[in-house]
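Structure, all two chains, one model.
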Amino acid sequence: MLLKKCLLAFVLTLSVTTIFAQTKTAVQSPDKNLLMNFWLDNDGRPMYELLYKNKTVILPSAMGFGLKQTMSNEALPSLQKNMQLTASSQSASDTKWNPVWGDVKEIRDQHNQLIVSLTQKGEKAIQFNIIFKVFNDGLGFRYVFPQQKELNHFIVSAEKTEFHLAGDHKAFWIPGDYDSNEFSPNVSKLSEVDGEDPKYAASIFAHQFFNKNAVQTPLMLKSDDGLYINIHEAALVNYPAMNLVIDKADFTLTSALVPDALGNMAYLQAPAKTPWRTIIVSDKATDILASHTILNLNDPSVIKDPSWIKPTKYIGVWWEMHVGKASWDSASGKHGATTANVKRYIDFAAKHKFDGVLVEGWNVGWEDWFGQYKENVFDFVTPYGDFDVKGLHKYAASKNVKLIMHHETSASVTNYERQMDTAYRFMKANGYDAVKTGYVGHIIPRGEHHDGQWMVNHYLRVAKKTADYKIMLDAHEPVRPTGLSRTYPNWLACEAARGMEFNAWSEGNKPRHDVILPFTRFMGGPMDYTPGIFQLELNYWDKNKKETIHTTLAKQLALYVTICSPLQMAADLPEIYEKKLDAFQFIKDVAVDWDDSKYLEAEPGEYITVARKAKKSNNWFVGSITNEQARTTTVDLDFLDAGKKYQAIIYADAPDADFEKNPAAYVISKQTVNSKTVLNLKLAPGGGTAISIMPIK
Amino acid sequence: MLLKKCLLAFVLTLSVTTIFAQTKTAVQSPDKNLLMNFWLDNDGRPMYELLYKNKTVILPSAMGFGLKQTMSNEALPSLQKNMQLTASSQSASDTKWNPVWGDVKEIRDQHNQLIVSLTQKGEKAIQFNIIFKVFNDGLGFRYVFPQQKELNHFIVSAEKTEFHLAGDHKAFWIPGDYDSNEFSPNVSKLSEVDGEDPKYAASIFAHQFFNKNAVQTPLMLKSDDGLYINIHEAALVNYPAMNLVIDKADFTLTSALVPDALGNMAYLQAPAKTPWRTIIVSDKATDILASHTILNLNDPSVIKDPSWIKPTKYIGVWWEMHVGKASWDSASGKHGATTANVKRYIDFAAKHKFDGVLVEGWNVGWEDWFGQYKENVFDFVTPYGDFDVKGLHKYAASKNVKLIMHHETSASVTNYERQMDTAYRFMKANGYDAVKTGYVGHIIPRGEHHDGQWMVNHYLRVAKKTADYKIMLDAHEPVRPTGLSRTYPNWLACEAARGMEFNAWSEGNKPRHDVILPFTRFMGGPMDYTPGIFQLELNYWDKNKKETIHTTLAKQLALYVTICSPLQMAADLPEIYEKKLDAFQFIKDVAVDWDDSKYLEAEPGEYITVARKAKKSNNWFVGSITNEQARTTTVDLDFLDAGKKYQAIIYADAPDADFEKNPAAYVISKQTVNSKTVLNLKLAPGGGTAISIMPIK
């Protein structure tokens, strides 16, 4: 599956000669723009710093751990001091690989690597290594505990990785939390962060704040001197997620892991390794969006034959529940997942060539599922009486449409783990090869958190088991992604952020939401964001409903391009689309998998313009979106094949469009374009432009 | 399976007339010896008291709960006051039923019942009922939360059931704990209990004390005025186990439930019910042993056709690991579960007509299994390379011997629950139809306890799932049993107490241990105690080993009768038995299921003499055991059929036998007996006598 080409032979420099403390070991990025130094300070504490074009990204920052013995629960000697460097080695690597799906068809992995081996001074010395990889666009480092005499099983009681920033940067952040990522992102100076303000937790049932100075990753930062810095992690496996606690006196961010029911962070056994801590940096915001460093830090795919993995565009019985037209619960009198209604969606999907139809509320349990710490809610195989599993399987198959299964676990994970095999067998027997999982509520095992080690292991267990069954996975309310979809490409998407649904029943998402997410949540991987809402004023569904979508209709279309995901929903209802089939044409045309992506312009929280070339096609799609400010911009189509003619269909905000006053006003125009064309775009407040560019044959 | 005969029509007296607080509602036992009064005190608090032959067993004692809302975690109004009685009803019942196995073939369930319905005063009143059943030998009561408007999901934050004793009784107790029951029982006045003395925790890795005044149930008490009182619970389902905290000022014992990882006790949804709280009382100690009240309070068997459930006498590859001759771990160089060694056990079992051979250490994982909070230890299907699953299945089948599976979960219960179906299918495919489970260590889900609600549900889930697979169950390190083997008769036995194994590697079990357990742990159900050790001085196995078994050999034989269990091991090694085949004959002859049992004499902590008649047989077996004191006694064989001749084989301590100085000295004598014979027994210190009495044809 992965075509791996080694462009450069591995260069290995091993230096085991005496190394003095305070001697800095330097590693540059291949293009020399980044410089990372590692050293031990006078106390024997591991330290690093990072510079980009001679500007400081990370001031001298400490690394290390607090560990405990598993059996006695007693502390082990600190790994934050008294360390000595016993070996270090450097190497360079430059390879390419082909993702199963993604924003480009080929990804270059070029980096310089440093491995340092550290050993405690004194008796019963514990060893650990740090691996640094310096890419042109960022740094990744991870801790590795090799197999050793003095350390076998152990508890991580704290990881103390510092990111000492050079100033009070502008931050695009959500509050640090153990359970939820569905907070509305805020934009402020680091010094102004207050993560425990209850306003963030509005409409979020299961969440746990722990420190008002804490924020989550991916954390996007912009320095006064024009650096864009993104801090996250890669390959989160068998370890809890990392929050960052801000020291507002000196802008040091320190890792704060998500604890388990006993207050421990991780249970490890040597050999063991942590996730990579990543710092992506550039003086161009578009470089952040274009970065593949997090994917490069993940392991290659374990799925030998990925031919069954299909990027998917889908509709579903879902938004009608959020707007109140229907209900998940069969006894409600307005059940959405009836055989007749699902057939209607299948018909629509078949007519408009969608791959799949998601159906939520198909199975018994919704009548009493939420918020009660109830362990046995769903069994994942028992449909409501008005949902004909066999009949719908047959009907969908006859129309060449795939039904997408829904497994809401209600966060009763022990129950789900008991049922998984049975549930996946049931799916395959009934023609389903994709599942949307959900984890709404407080986790059972009680005391565990959505983002703790136990749940991190669970999500991956699901990814592996669904892969065993050749099932594609879309996990809602999981831990934030960290590029694991490279390794498990059947794991198409996650939610793990505030999605479209919040617009249906909360204060909603701000217009800037969509120009922040690509710099934050999306750094870890695709999101099932569910764009495509055409009925933007929700009093259409219920005259008492005051909610509106805080975008224009054209922006809803542009999201299919600004969001990169192999799983995209057209979230509105068939009857809504039927009324605007001209605009709907863009959703029908747009791809969900790409040969190439051009990040043309971007500023976090303000605007993004992206062009993408569809996989195995000459069709291009452009998306341009703005925040609450109107905006004019130009798109230079120089990425098109020279000398070739294309027809561009431009889905733009109408001149009087406005996300608040006139969101649904759009104009569609067509024009013949080529690689020399420059298009002028005019985006309404909360608006966007979507463009399809297809060769004229 | 259960032959249910209604001897007496149900008498129902419904009194819904105005009931005043402080008016006592009285219920007597059918034989009028017991009197229970229920009333509400001036604060509207539910109260009860219990008298036996006009002696006070329980002084006025309060009942009630602290509850919380599940969703908000906020306290609900206390159920310990402000209650009013809205209804009460009394009835009488007298039925008989036949257990699948047990100490008698028919059990009479005769009791008078009172149901009181209580409702809070004021708005949003919560209701609950208390059901009292008064038997001739004791009282059982449970709380029931009916379906109601003001209570659906709720958390039990505390159950406050009091047992206000009439004095500073002599108590036979083990410390209150959340995880272990493997403490050496102590005998003291209630006022002298100190459960947190570290001496109790010696040799017990996973345990959690919580209050030095706490003790576990079954709690055996003896009052100065000669009453024997036993407090326990019946039908522990979806609820945590109960400890009792002693108020040493007035000898009130108050229930203290085992909490979960969040400190909550139970998550319930109305309709819901608690286990029965049981108080068995008599002026004869033998009545305590003969009581079937706890079984009567459990539901009838759910297994329609129990023909596949076979009381089992077995040997196994087990004691050789405890004495250090062999190891569970294949890499140790002295692996016990090798194909050759197991064949040796199969041969011995076949020769001596044992039903089964247990094999521990057969599966990969033992090399790193203990005490490290490791989640993925065993997979329950991967044998060590030197254990031939298929070959041994064939070999055992050819010899008409059943292999018994061992599933040590290392208390990683999430892991076991993921593997259970696969593991049971593997068992059935390889001819196993009985499993010994183990839960050694700290529970995963971390923060849960062996005796908490989540684990209580787990043990029952295993009992049900093994029943689905027609597998018999023997659970080690589970919660203490509460008579659930009536409902799930495939659940043959539990450990849940300090078994024989402690003699192999700890300070051991005191001689009085065996004359306490039947009054404590065994009240809840059978134990896999593993008697039959003939090699009583363990330096035989390793000259550095100082441990000895603190009984005589004859007492080891007598245990097969004093212990009532449908699962009994002959725990010593074949080569040991080969040397004493004359004594071994008793183990071969003795039954493990009974038509009748006669509890001839007993005093907790001192002596027990029991005669039992084998199931569907005219063979009787007598066991008489003592504590560290030598003892002479007589056994009147008047239970034999009049006019019939029997041969008695008497396995007695030799005149110079002594558990410390000369434990293995025994004498075997034969004599013809009839119903008029009175046998004189002489028990050595730590000794016993076993007798088989078989009709002369």
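Chain B has three domains: 22-296, 298-496, 508-515+527-536+546-697.
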